Amino acid sequence: MAPARTQPTAPPRIFPPVLGLEVPAVFDELFANAIVMLSNVKPLEGPDRVPRALLAGIPWGASTPGAIAAGCARYPSAAAVIDEHGSLTFRDLWRSSDELAWELLESGIGRDRRVGLLARNHRGFVQTLLAVAKTGADLVLLNPEFAAPQLVDVVVSERLDRVLHDRDCAAAAAACEVASCLDDRLAASARDARRSVRPPSRPGRMIILTSGTTGRPKGATHRGDGSAQGVAATVGRIPFRPGDIQVVAAPLFHGWGLTNLLLALARSSTTVLMRVFDAAQTLDTVSRQGADVLVVVPVMLQRILALGPQALVDADTTRLRVIASSGSALGGKLVGETLDRIGPVLYNVYGSTEVTVAAIATPFDLRRNAACAGSPVLGARVEVVDDQGKPVAPGSIGRVFVGTATRFEGYTNGGGKEERDGLLSSGDLGHFDPSGLLVIDGREDDMIVSGGENVYPAKVEELLTRHPGIAQVAVVGVPDPDFGQGLAAFVVAREGRELTVEDVKRHVHRNLARFKVPRRVEFLTELPRTTTGKVLKREFVQACLD
Fold first, then answer.
1. 250: burial class by Cβ within 10 Å (0-12, 13-18, 19+)?
2. Cα(97)–Cα(103) distance, integer angstroms
3. Is the pLDDT of residue 27 over 90?
4. Most buried residue among 173, 234, 307, 467 by CB atoms closer than 10 A?
């Protein structure tokens, strides 16, 4: 059964009408392609390399194999991936994926089939991603933290024909009849690569699972052929360069880590991977590799800074030009600490699995407003509307709707996101500040009504993170007999600091209205989070109800 799609609508335009006449859409794509090409220009590069890359990519089109074929032709001996096993060149990445692709094709995997990939961040993930794309099959990226029952549930709901997993995930995969380990196959492929694979008649789709913070993860389908506008949206705002060395700490099975992997492969850059995130190891890797780019989710950046000033002094981050963060809210305190202690290198990317990248905040934007998500990227349209769908005034909080050229096609279970005038609901509440920067105030389903007043837990969280004794905090709405709903705060104290319930309540009362003071405060050693760093708030709510 083919994945469900949302109703087709025209994507947002880069060029508005001129003198009342519509500018042909081809100019949007030409402009986006020009930005992509300019971002991929390397000074003093041999004149034959770029034409060679273009010719190699043409048979595969604007797809994952096309991007890697171009990189292979441009710099075949350059390192595409570095992990605990060392370097894997573009040439070896291409050849080893051919053998795995042949094995899949000969076993019946190809067009109209679905393959799940269950693996941590290492070269095997990248080789398998490329091999499946070469077959034309759809690829479903699975969370390596799935327990066996959850994995089986997703395999059934997503109708997977095969699950390829690494040894780290063998225990969970053992419950799946269609699972097979990829480690030995990839090792053999690297030795025996002799057969090349022809491009499929139609590119497969990439299916990325939602985070599952509110229930079973849903598969969000994206076209496998990509879009120049989608790439231009990111490289037009973040100063990526060809030949960069980037450390990707964010998980590759998630859209944020995956996007940065593909962008690096397309610009002949090197991606450094570690199977499991460790703050000290990540900082050391940035230093040893002379990394230009670090890709994280906010909680990872928070843990790196928590290593202390001396760790940052000892690490060599002189080449670090970009810290790209996405996946959840950064928080003003974390933004300020990063800019002050590391430098003007932080980029906050706002988007979702469904709408992809909607807005990006540059270091300059974050200095003006540390809480902002930036301004809409090239080709994106962002509107903040009221319950009737009408735009609200600047500074007023409303529902955030987003339109991009790379929006998802729909959920594999047949559902979709709420849509208005071609824009998809992000599920967030937000506003535009006086300078036109987007600020996200929280999730729609997080807002509570306490004693007739609208309360946004994110605002209380932001205030509490600025308390010198608080390391992490999550604020949720819970039933309250007097006010209908009230706030409960779950706090992780900083090491060596003692906090009381009254300390927390007093801090809020001194800075915010009385109805925003948490009526319940609980102290924890750690907040439960997803692999991508999102706090599992439903667990807090359940704890309050139990």
1. buried
2. 10
3. no
4. 173
pTM above 0.85, yes or no: yes
Distance in angstroms (rounded) separating the CA atoms of residues 207 and 215: 18
pLDDT in tens, 181-203: 887 666 655 555 567 889 998 88
The DSSP-derived string for 351-396 is EETTTEEEEEE-HHHHHH-TTEEEEEPTT-EEEEE-TTSPBPPTT-
- Residue 170 C-beta-side C-alpha neighbours within 13 Å: 7
Burial 296-324 (b: 16+ CB within 10 A, else e): bbbbbbbbbbeeeeeeeeebebeebbbbb
| Dist. CA 296–CA 518, nearest whole Å | 31
Contact 456, 444 (CB under 8 A): no
Judged against a pLDDT cut of 60, whether residue 2 lies above it is answered with: no
* pLDDT score recorded for residue 15: 61
What is the spatial distance between Cα 452 and Cα 251, in angstroms, rounded to a whole number? 41
Tokens of 350: 């706002």
Q: What is the pLDDT of residue 17?
A: 64
Q: How many residues appear in the chain?
A: 546
pLDDT, residue 456, reads 87
Q: What is the 3-state secondary structure (H, E, C) of 308-361?
A: CHHHHHHCCCCCCCEEEECCCCCCHHHHHHHHHHCCCCEEEEEEECCCEEEEEE
| Residue 82 CB neighbours (<10 A) | 19
CB 373 within 8 A of CB 359: yes
Domains along the chain with CATH numbers: 448-545 (3.30.300.30)
